[in-house]
Task: inverse folding
């Protein structure tokens, strides 16, 4: 393999890994219980780590083809997405696109179509990378993760993924659903790419607007990625109440204030995609766009 | 310690012993099996030069961990030409001169092959989306798109001949 990175020229050959292939979730959790193995699903993240000569665990437990791990199930109150669902399947899920367009937009914006066929939702989240797209949308949606170890289970917020232990596995991702008589929900994911395609975001933002049955704003939510500690939920305290007083949905002043807070409360880092100062301005702009689109969708009654 | 790996490669059952299940399919094909038709470009999944077909889907071989291939089906560009001549997709690239240096060509051919296996009559948008998944730094894509359109026509003609 040819590399132009001089830092990699002096590293030795890669140590081989051991790959274990369990046939059930319980068997996978038993293999992980020792705490010295890592989960591998689509394998993309691990392959890129090896490509970059970053430390890799000696033992991998393959979970990408576990039975029942790649299903999407619906109840009246939530949609449960198996952690093994590929991003390409998520992107193409018509029912999910109607309920949470922000989530299918985020899944469909990752890398290339060919890579999305390999990457699982659970793997994308567990990578704990602040620039990954789906976690930004899921954080804005208030999704919860079901995680399990060999003995028990618990739930985590997306922002708590750093607390996932080596002996734990993400089993599924749960998105709340709103009953039709409780109003409408609109959501939108916005990703700013400096080159226009196929790269990590300069800025990525997810937004949710909930309207009550009268069309007044009941709740607003924003999450920002590609920033330190991301995805960062933006504190919009008081804004929904302020917006709710105005008839006819959300007005520009509320959107501007939400965008200002998004920029104020996040700490982007300068890199090849832009300086920190530039990204701060882009965060405000793309927060504005995401909220505007989410509000339109909520008003139209689509994108619950 | 080498571990056994069983999968189908170009319509043949193979069992090989791999030293490192976390190695890439690209390295296995080129380095161990001598199937050098699959090209190594960016090695991070973006350029499409190493595109192969796994279980009917075009994937970058540089991101495909070999240990995850157990029981699966892999096709490489070496599988396309047969006793009857070139595959229609290969024929189309020759007919339309859809290449200059040729480095990206196997990846383009496999990507279009995977598309036609899934959808024998894709629309223009689908063709563009497929071609978009492979970098070509020579042609500007005009003749590659011509080749993809020609491949659809040749595939259709061949299917009618079979009927």
Result:
């Amino acid at each position: 393999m040819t590399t132009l990175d001089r830092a990699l020229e002096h590293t030795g050959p890669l140590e081989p890994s051991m790959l274990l292939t369990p046939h059930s979730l319980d068997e996978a959790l038993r293999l992980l219980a020792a705490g010295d193995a890592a989960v591998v699903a689509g394998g993309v993240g691990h392959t890129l780590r090896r490509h970059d000569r970053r430390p890799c665990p000696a033992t991998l437990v393959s979970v990408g083809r576990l039975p029942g791990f790649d299903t999407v199930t619906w109840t009246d109150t939530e949609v449960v997405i198996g952690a093994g669902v590929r991003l390409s399947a998520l992107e193409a899920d018509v029912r999910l696109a109607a309920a949470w367009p922000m989530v299918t937009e985020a899944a469909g914006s990752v890398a290339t179509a060919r890579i999305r066929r390999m990457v699982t939702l659970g793997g994308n989240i567990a990578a704990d990378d602040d620039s990954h797209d789906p976690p930004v949308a899921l954080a804005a949606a208030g999704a919860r993760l079901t995680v399990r170890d060999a003995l028990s289970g618990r739930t985590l917020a997306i922002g708590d993924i750093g607390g996932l232990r080596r002996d734990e596995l993400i089993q599924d991702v749960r998105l709340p659903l709103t009953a039709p008589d409780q109003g409408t929900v609109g959501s939108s994911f916005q990703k700013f790419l400096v080159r226009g395609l196929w790269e990590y975001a300069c800025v990525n933002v997810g937004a949710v607007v909930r309207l009550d049955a009268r069309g007044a704003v009941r709740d607003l939510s924003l999450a920002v990625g590609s920033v330190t500690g991301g995805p960062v939920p933006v504190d919009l305290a008081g804004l929904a109440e302020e917006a709710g007083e105005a008839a006819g949905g959300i007005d520009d002043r509320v959107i501007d204030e939400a965008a200002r807070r998004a920029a104020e409360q996040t700490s982007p880092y300068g890199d090849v995609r832009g300086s920190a100062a530039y990204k701060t301005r882009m965060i405000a702009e793309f927060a504005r766009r995401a909220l505007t689109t989410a509000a339109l969708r909520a008003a139209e009654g689509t994108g619950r | 310690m080498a571990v056994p790996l069983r999968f189908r490669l170009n319509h043949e059952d193979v069992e090989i012993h791999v030293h490192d299940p976390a190695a890439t399919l690209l390295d296995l094909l080129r380095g161990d099996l001598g199937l050098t038709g699959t090209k190594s470009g960016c090695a991070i999944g973006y350029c499409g030069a190493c595109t192969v077909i796994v279980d009917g889907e075009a994937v970058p071989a540089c991101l495909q961990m070999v240990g995850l291939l157990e029981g699966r089906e892999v096709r490489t560009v070496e599988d396309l030409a047969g006793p009857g001549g070139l595959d229609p997709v290969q024929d189309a690239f020759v007919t339309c001169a859809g290449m200059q240096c040729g480095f990206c060509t196997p990846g383009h051919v496999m990507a279009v092959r995977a598309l036609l296996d899934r959808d024998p009559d894709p629309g223009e948008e689908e063709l563009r989306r497929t071609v978009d998944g492979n970098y070509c730094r020579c042609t500007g894509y005009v003749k590659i798109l011509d080749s993809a359109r020609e491949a659809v026509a040749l595939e259709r003609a061949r299917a009618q001949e079979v009927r």
Summary: The first helix of chain B runs from residue 25 to 32. DSSP finds five helices and five strands in chain B. The first strand of chain B starts at residue 3 and ends at 9. Chain B has a mean pLDDT of 95.
